[in-house]
């Protein structure tokens, strides 16, 4: 049996691989940020219809959801390098198709580009699971590893829009106009093929191919142990050596398996182990070679059984899905809601930049918060409470710039705490042996998270037009409140154990004090 220090030993090239993951994810996220900053306006340039302007974003999230499960399975069969290569191999054509769509003024072709972007983004999102893989990061460093990888998105959040803007400026050399100076909202007639605004958006998307190429180079430099070398052959508890020991009576001593069933803890379910229960059986020479019948091994668990037996898997999936979908639902209609409230375009930009900064800058401290201060469940609860408080601020102070900055910034911070802690919890909530459940659980998690994110992306504008901004925020409050209650239900048993243990220590100390007196 390995000691605790051996089990927590750093895998080969840990620092190198984590650094490459941080850089690769930052480059991939820069395309996400650039696309988000450009997509709706580019869609309006080729198809001047406000209700259809967010359709490419919805398509991107929907494809992201559908591609998550097969890509997660591919990581277990072919490894992370191949999957991260998919992000670049598909991402470069995505930028090319979007660039062509702007050049020929085709909305359908632009939506096809969004399909490619969805596949590329689904591949890139698996960076956070790679940062938790035992071949890349030791278990005790997991909260810090995922925090560093997600923190790399801070760099990407500022690089992507700047790169798109730089690409749009290049269009001026071929007779075009900067994308941020083009105002397609004022166009009453359908833009002509090759219009100045279309050239600006086309060159912006062409520039977004650069991060995908650099991320592909980072993928080639990863050094991860092959999957085949990670498979461990579990020893058969009933396998007998040729040199069986005998006791003093001359009887062969056999080790019989004894099933030890413990209380279900988290996702590991019933713990089945072997105790050294020896039985001495006198055997003739003729019986010595008779094999002992072995019980049939347990087969792989279905996804339904994993969810049924693993409350931590359920909690982590619910937390990540609610955090992502509610954040998208609040962020997507914010620019339109602020315009209706009379805010300027510059003030809207400041609020969105603050929101994105608060989403990723705290990642550098979230790992320490999980590991040393609040724990995983405590960080989830803290994020949910901050999310609720931020929504209350937006409801009552929505007409002030300070209220918008504080509210959207708080939503970004809450998303970070909930999403990072939920991902950390998920990584320790399913079995690796004897049947690896990683691809099955991670794929299901990605489908839930980005499926609800797609609904939030498409539903934000509908809720704004149907029940108003305040009504949409109240709906989010209801969802967050139910999620918080569900988290408390999961955390109460652990809180009770903690209180009983510390109260017991206090009583024990008091008894010792009385006896010494």
Summarize the structure.
With 517 residues, this protein is mainly α. 68% of the residues lie in helices and 2% in strands.
Strand content: under 5%
**Strand line-up in the sheet with most strands:** 1-2
CATH hierarchy: architecture of the largest domain: Up-down Bundle
Helix fraction by DSSP (H/I, runs of at least 4) = 55-70%
What is the molecular shape?
Answer: globular
The low-confidence runs, each spanning 5 or more residues with pLDDT under 50, are 176-196, 228-289, 506-517
Give the class from helix and strand content and strand pairing.
Answer: mainly alpha
CATH fold-type name of the largest domain: Growth Hormone, Chain: A
The average pLDDT value, as a whole number, equals 75
**Spatial gap, N to C terminus:** 46 Å
The CATH class name of the largest domain reads: Mainly Alpha
Report the order of strands and helices.
Answer: HHHHHHHHHHEEHHHHHHHHH
Chart the SSEs and their pairings.
Blueprint: H1 4-7, H2 14-46, H3 55-78, H4 80-104, H5 107-125, H6 127-130, H7 142-151, H8 153-170, H9 196-207, H10 209-221, E1 252-256, E2 277-281, H11 303-309, H12 311-331, H13 334-340, H14 345-360, H15 363-373, H16 375-396, H17 401-427, H18 438-466, H19 468-516
